Amino acid sequence: MTGIINWNELWKTMRSGSAWRRAPEKDADFWDKYAKRCNESLMQSNERTERQITKMELYPEYSVLDIGSGVGRLAVPIAKKVKTVTALDPSKDMLAYLKENMKKEGVNNIVCTNKRWEDIELGEDIEPHDVVVASYSLGMFDMQETLAKIDAAAKRCVYLFEFVGGWMDEKFWKELHGERRPAWTGYIYLYNILHDMGICANVKIIDSDYEQQYDSLDDAVNKWKDMYDVPSEKEGVLTEYLTKILVERDGKLCLKRKSKSAMVWWKKNHECTEQRSQYPVGENPTR
């Protein structure tokens, strides 16, 4: 039941903003071009990956669906713990790197499916799995429809990961694009949309360290230009900003920062009780 605030419509409004369209939730063609760079940074995410996986209930007999799997940062290590993994991604190049990573790690129980989640027909393209995971990959327009399908695809549990807050300087983003940066608080929307659907989810905030390495300042500038749609006339501004925040170490330029993520998760006995369901996030006076 929708409350005073229609969180799904609010999500659509935010998702339609021009600033959001510059965010890294783009189409398959973009991710095909970005696949190599994404794969190069895969091993730099070990700490974050381990923190995520240790918070999931995974058993040897389980099947896991990874929505927006990319190059397999989660899918490959999860596959070592469960019976089967289905890696779903709209980018064929991402899945090509995932297959290479499977070979490197000696993993052979991942099925790759090159489709968008929106185009998947449950029962035809994919059968329900014990666990469904989506890690920083939920950029769909109709989030309520997306979450309803995710819930239907899970037999036991769902784990969704979203960033909490932004790390990039607000003043810098506005200087680049002339407007505020996208709001990286998607977990608030997910929680409340789920609440309106009668799904009583849990939220866990996770702290982690993130490091990205670049071969040179030019390498960093070029990657940021692609990732954040930086206009060519603003390249000087970007170069100056990166010069200030990158640190040289072992012949590389490094960007190291602390970040927060939210794990929104629920088991299939997820119905909200009458007492708890009257309070969306942030409105329960007893919390």
Give the strand content: 15-25%
Determine and state the CATH class.
Alpha Beta
Evaluate the radius of gyration.
19 Å
Low-pLDDT stretches are 274-287
The CATH H-level superfamily is Vaccinia Virus protein VP39
Number of domains: 1
Element-by-element helix/strand order:
HHHHEHEHEEHEHHEHHEE
User: Mind describing the biggest β-sheet?
Assistant: 8 strands, mixed
Explain the overall architecture:
There is one protein chain. By secondary structure, the chain is an alpha/beta fold. The protein has a single domain, classed as 3-Layer(aba) Sandwich (Rossmann fold), CATH 3.40.50. Helices cover 37% and strands 22% of the residues. Strands 1, 2, 3, 4, 5, 6, 7 and 8 form an eight-stranded mixed sheet that branches. Helix 1 packs antiparallel against helix 9, helix 3 runs parallel beside helix 6 and helix 10 packs across helix 11. It is globular and about 50 Å long. The relative contact order is 0.15. The C terminus is likely disordered.
